[in-house]
TrEMBL record:
Lineage: Eukaryota, Metazoa, Ecdysozoa, Arthropoda, Hexapoda
Record keywords, A-Z: Signal
Protein's recorded name: Ecdysteroid UDP-glucosyltransferase
Signal peptide: 1-15
The keyword Signal belongs to this UniProt entry's keyword annotation: yes
């Protein structure tokens, strides 16, 4: 009898508590994270979602942690000229087949 009770409790508890962290800087990447959260919440899981782009309409079993204030501390994206190393860096590190070893 105790075994039957134990098995019925295991069967009844099939939902999980899941932490989803999507600290992406782009809204388009955050849409992917919201897709994960939507799918997991529809399956009955309790979700804690950490994101800089909060939901407008939050599902019932999702707790959201808004980190959008962190975005103010991130510097603007560098231009490609600033981000890439100088051409001399590439010339030093590239060898060709015609050069002696």
């Amino acid at each position: 009898m105790k075994l039957l009770l134990l098995l019925s409790l295991v069967y009844a508890s099939d939902a999980y508590r899941i932490l989803v962290v999507f600290p992406t800087l782009g809204k388009s990447h955050s849409i992917l994270g919201q897709g994960f959260v939507d799918t997991l919440s529809q399956a009955g899981h309790e979700i804690t979602y950490i994101t800089p782009f909060p939901y407008e309409k939050l599902p019932a079993n999702v707790q959201q942690i808004n980190i959008s204030s962190v975005m103010d501390n991130i510097p603007e994206q560098e231009s490609s000229e600033q981000a890439l190393p100088k051409p001399n860096f590439f010339q030093r590190n590239i060898t060709s087949q015609s050069s002696p070893v």
